[in-house]
Amino acid sequence: MPTDNNTPRPDANADAGDDAPQKEKLVALRNALLLIHKTLLNMERRDYERDNGAVNTGELFRLVIDDPQFAWLHNISEFVVRIDETLAGKEPITVDYMRECFVLARKMFTPTEAGDAFQKKYFDAIQRDPAVVMDHAELARLFNTEPTEASAS
Q1: How many domains does the chain have?
Q2: Which residues span the domain enclosing 29?
Q3: Which of 37, 94, 104, 134 has its CA 20 to 30 A from that of 110?
Q4: pTM score, whole prediction
């Protein structure tokens, strides 16, 4: 999730009612992002090990933090952390905030050769790994449960 001033605050326009439905949807989004992150990490690990030899868990952790091959996955990690912070917070989660998270995730996970760096890497990953295709299909199903940006306003 971007860290600019356009990132919604969970308490903006707070609903008077219960925020359980918004929390449930954010948890579902978080879980889907973690799943696709794991699949993409496994794909990158296989590619790295093919070129450089096997790595243990500690070495993989260092690679994920420092190696440029894995850097594009940081966007997903940061998005999950922001969702976790929101879920752990005391402020109620509004429908608008939850929907904005879905809009941002939908944009981020639009695979395209003409998009930003993440979208291009994601496009390539979908072309290379059937497991990524399967996880993307699940993510797309989740996205279809929420309005698109145009209809969310």
Answers
A1: 1
A2: 20-147
A3: 94
A4: 0.83
